[in-house]
Design a protein that fits this description.
The complex is a heterodimer. By secondary structure, chain A is mostly helical. Chain A has 17 helices and no strands. In chain A, helix 4 packs across helix 15, helix 13 runs parallel beside helix 16 and helix 15 packs antiparallel against helix 16. Chain B has 2 domains: 99 residues, no CATH class; 129 residues, Immunoglobulin-like. Chain B is built from 6 helices and 10 strands. In chain B, the strands form 2 sheets. A 5-stranded mixed β-sheet of chain B has the order 3-2-1-5-8. In chain B, strands 4-10-9-6-7 form a 5-stranded mixed β-sheet. In chain B, helix 1 runs antiparallel to helix 2. The chains are: A mainly alpha, B alpha+beta. At the A-B interface, helix 4, helix 11, helix 12, helix 13 and helix 14 of A face helix 1, helix 2, helix 3, helix 4 and strand 7 of B.
Chain lengths: 608, 281
């Protein structure tokens, strides 16, 4: 597998040897190499570390929520004495509100979106398409460094006077606009809005870069339909971001001016709360919901498509079999992206939006389940008839498929508008999106870390401990999230600091306690992952270029790849999933390997 | 048994426990709460219908996954991997079948939606007793009461003897909504400050209340529910006290309902001082 043909250096702009990088500037100092780096791999790893740190924050916030739901108004362990010394360590309802607001905010804006696009997008795109770097390295660096103002802004929501941002991650006005409606949110809500804007700028810079790079920088022979699914998913995601984000950014500014200067875009005539002076208003709270979800529904796909892409790559690699239905998979994610723009109203079925309009959104929403179903069937087709290797990344990828089935199917309940009347804003919804985003995306991300760790750091993670990590995460996540379906069936509402004083929900406390202990177990299990990650980074066995015997171009680069990625010009001869090809004796047939039967299918002559 | 079989069994637990927990749910009292509304059964029916449908797909796909993992484990599978890139006919089948199913669900549920969210809009808007639509059914049903959400309570206003809201004889109450049994109820819901959501779990009613909008909800409490009261939940985040914005809805017999209004009337109008003519609160 280490027999790398030295490629023809005469092809196209991607044909830089390792020495041809004076334009990027050779990293000379620590600062320019690891801090203000323009190298996509360093930037990707910077994103990875930052988002994993925020993952810890988001996870701890979730535990705070779980604690209150299991032991309402009891002393908060560890932090209680420090934060609430006046109330015998018991958390306040304002604090609870800030907890779930920031849990969602951190997980969505600072973990899932940047870990997929920022960390894996950055690291993998040039490597997988055979480019030496991104199209715009400086822009790339900026996209990471715009995350820092966002970190500061979101951090400020925790420490600014009062109780923190308290309008939910959806920041619905008037609660988010009229300051007297949420006393104690003062500056925090303003910082929150600025933070979202900064994250948006970062994503936007990234998406422009990804689109350009994928279109312009592919290695000779890498046609669009030879791209790995990961890259297709990143490409579609970048398009989604480019078209949806400006709407959120604009809406965010409008809400900011509403909040600061009473512009009244999103509040009704004579709006008031808590006997405060009336605002001039003249706007509509529902307008914010439309604009917010116009971004945030496509964002749901931004948060899942790259995971689907990476899972497709991992599944094919460890089933030792070509991906089943490559083109249908590509069309599916394109279909999801297209339909993704016209389903936002399904978040608003009972919002007061015209119910006739709701029917339109319902139809589009039903139809968007279709490409997801097609993807699941094709993943099953991929492992059918394979020779499945149960490595850690494979287990995470398989669990993605298994869990995404649950998350996908539960979506059909809420797409049915009459059913949504009952389950809207209940734990049924919470179950649904945690199955998609945690059991789906977060598990795929963990699998992707185990899979590409050797390429990132040149060493393998421990597979045995990886499986222990997988096993307990898988068990505990189901213990945490699956019962949420049942709670939702009872109508258990979201975002209630203490639901048990309602007669309907009083008997649900024991189940919530069980879920909380599963959540504590799930977060604790991640310690295994953290230790494995850092230990392996320094002491793991050396990986070699292609430890998994995989086909993608990234596996022909050294591990870790140096500046400029490839020490020879990769030329692409075939698609990324030729595992078990009869043309070769090995069970994989890398994209860069020259054809063994002499039949080149003319790939080199068509660089792009 | 190889190690890989352990993983197959772990994934087998997903459909086994997944279905098992749903089957145990009614015994755990984790099922749809008692439905006392006339329309609620259509929602429950749709829920259960979708549950069986998705449940079948869930079991089938999860079992297929487990079966493939078991059978095609590299340690025990002696066959070479099938070198196939897909199947056009399979793609067609598993595109058309789910598409048809989803389309069926979509069409199947439209009427229930229309009944609960659309039925009263047109007649309420303009058609009077002598309007073109002309039948007795088209006469707008007067609202039984107006429910106003505010941080963190539900203010309830009955129109009083004259049947017109916001007049001197209005009767008001907080968090305690009474309705007569077996009669179609129309409520006007609105908000005084931020978003709230008017959620009656036992009546399968949920509607966000939006400042600046006056919306209507309608439902009918079935016979047998009289004499009981149920939760009125705020289901849209409305601030730090969201969790405690709790009301109760009590279903009365016609006579109990009259008595309830009389009691309110006695409490609120016994003095010669008339109540304020507007709804300033």
């Amino acid at each position: 597998m280490s027999s790398h043909a030295i490629g023809d250096h005469g092809h196209g702009h991607a044909a830089h040897g390792a020495d041809g990088h004076a334009d990027h500037g050779h990293a000379t100092s620590f600062i320019s190499k690891y801090v203000f780096s323009k190298d996509h791999k360093i930037i990707g790893i910077q994103f990875l570390f930052s988002t994993l740190l925020w993952f810890i924050v988001g996870g701890l916030l979730a535990l705070g929520i779980r604690w209150q739901l299991a032991y309402p108004w009891s002393k908060l362990p560890i932090l209680g004495d420090m934060l609430f010394s006046g109330e015998a360590g018991q958390m306040s309802p304002e604090f609870y509100t800030a907890l779930f607001t920031m849990h969602a905010t951190v997980m969505i804006f600072l973990v899932i979106i940047p870990i997929l696009a920022g960390a894996f997008g950055n690291f993998l795109i040039p490597l997988m398409i055979g480019a030496d770097d991104m199209a715009f390295p400086t822009l790339n660096m900026l996209s990471y460094w715009f995350m820092w103002p966002a970190f500061v802004c979101f951090g400020m929501t925790f420490v600014s006077a009062g109780h923190g941002a308290a309008a939910g991650w959806t920041s619905y006005p008037p609660l988010s606009v009229i300051e007297s409606a949420a006393p104690g949110s003062h500056m925090a809500q303003t910082w929150w809005l600025l933070g979202v804007t900064m994250v948006g700028i970062s994503s936007m810079l990234g998406s422009v870069n990804y689109m350009t790079t994928i279109i312009q920088m592919r290695a000779p022979g890498m046609t669009m339909f030879r791209l790995p699914m990961t890259i297709w998913a990143m490409f579609i995601t970048a398009i989604l971001q480019a078209f949806a984000l400006p709407v959120l950014t604009a809406a965010g500014f409008m809400q900011l001016t509403d909040r600061l200067w009473d512009t009244g875009f999103f509040v009704a005539e004579a709006a008031t709360a808590n006997n405060a002076a009336e605002m001039s208003g003249g706007g509509q709270p529902l307008l914010w919901q439309h604009l917010f979800w116009f971004y945030s529904h496509p964002a749901v796909y931004i948060m899942i498509l790259p995971a689907m892409g990476m899972v497709s790559d991992i599944l094919a690699c460890f089933a030792r079999k070509p991906l089943f239905g490559y083109k249908p998979m590509v069309y599916s994610i394109s279909g999801i992206a297209g339909l993704g723009f016209i389903v936002w109203g399904h978040h608003m079925f009972v919002s007061g939006m015209n119910p006739v309009l709701g029917v339109t959104f319902m139809l589009a929403t039903m139809m968007i389940a279709l490409p997801s179903a097609i993807k699941v069937f094709n993943w099953l087709g991929t492992i059918w008839g394979g020779k499945i290797q149960f490595t850690t990344p494979m287990l995470f990828a398989l669990s993605f498929v298994s869990m995404f089935i649950i998350g996908g199917l539960s979506g059909i309940f809420m797409a049915a508008t009459p059913v949504d009347i009952f389950i809207h804003d209940t734990y049924f919804i919470v179950a649904h999106f945690h199955y998609v985003l945690f059991s789906g995306t977060a598990m795929a991300v963990m699998g992707a870390i185990y899979f590409w760790f050797p390429k990132m750091f040149g060493r393998m993670m421990n597979d045995g401990w990886g499986k222990v990590h997988f096993f307990f995460t898988f068990v505990f996540l189901n213990g945490t999230f699956y019962p949420m379906h049942l709670l939702g069936m009872v109508g258990f509402p979201r975002r209630l600091a203490d639901p048990y004083h309602y007669e309907t929900f009083a008997h649900l406390l024991p189940m919530n306690q069980f879920m909380t202990w599963c959540a504590i177990g799930m977060v604790s299990t991640q310690i295994i992952f953290a230790v494995n990650f850092f230990y392996s980074m320094f002491y793991g066995p050396k990986a070699g270029r292609n430890p998994w015997h995989a086909n993608g171009l990234e596996w022909c680069a050294p591990s870790p790849p140096g500046h400029g990625n490839f020490d020879f010009q990769p030329i692409v001869h075939r698609g990324p999933y030729e595992y078990g090809s009869p043309e070769t004796d090995e069970d994989y047939y890398p994209q860069w390997e020259p054809p063994k039967n002499g039949n080149d299918e003319g790939s080199v002559s068509t660089p792009h | 048994m190889g190690k890989a079989k352990i993983w197959s069994i772990l994934f087998l637990m997903v459909p086994v426990l997944g279905v098992g927990l749903f089957m145990a749910a009614p015994a755990l009292r984790m099922w749809l709460p008692t439905d006392v509304s006339e329309h609620g059964h259509t929602i429950d029916h749709l829920f259960v219908f979708i549950m069986y449908l998705t449940g079948a797909v869930f079991v089938a796909t999860e079992l297929a996954l487990v079966w493939y993992l078991w059978k095609y484990d590299a340690n025990s599978n002696t066959q070479p991997a099938k070198f196939t890139h897909g199947s056009h006919s399979l793609e067609v089948v598993w595109t058309i079948l789910p598409a048809a199913t989803l389309l069926f669900i979509a069409i199947y549920q439209i009427n229930a939606w229309a009944d609960q969210k659309l039925a009263r809009r047109a007649p309420m808007a303009s058609v009077g007793p002598d309007g073109q639509a002309g039948t007795a059914d088209d006469v707008p049903k007067a609202p039984l009461a107006e429910v106003t959400g505010r941080q963190f309570e539900w203010r309830i206003r009955y129109p009083g003897p004259d049947g017109i809201l916001h007049t001197r004889d209005d009767l008001t109450d907080v968090n305690d909504l009474h309705i007569p049994v077996d009669e179609e109820i129309v409520l006007v819901i609105k908000s005084e400050d931020v978003l709230h959501s008017f959620f009656l779990p036992n009546f399968r009613v949920k509607q966000d209340v939006v400042p600046g909008m006056r919306q209507k909800v309608w439902f009918k409490a079935v016979k047998g529910s009289e004499g009981r009261s149920y939760d009125l939940v705020c289901a849209e985040l409305c601030g730090w006290g969201h969790y405690k914005m709790k009301g109760r809805i009590t279903v009365d017999t016609q006579s109990d309902y009259r008595a309830w209004l009389d009691k309110l009337s006695f409490e609120q109008h016994r003095t010669s001082e008339p109540p304020p003519p507007t709804d300033e609160e």
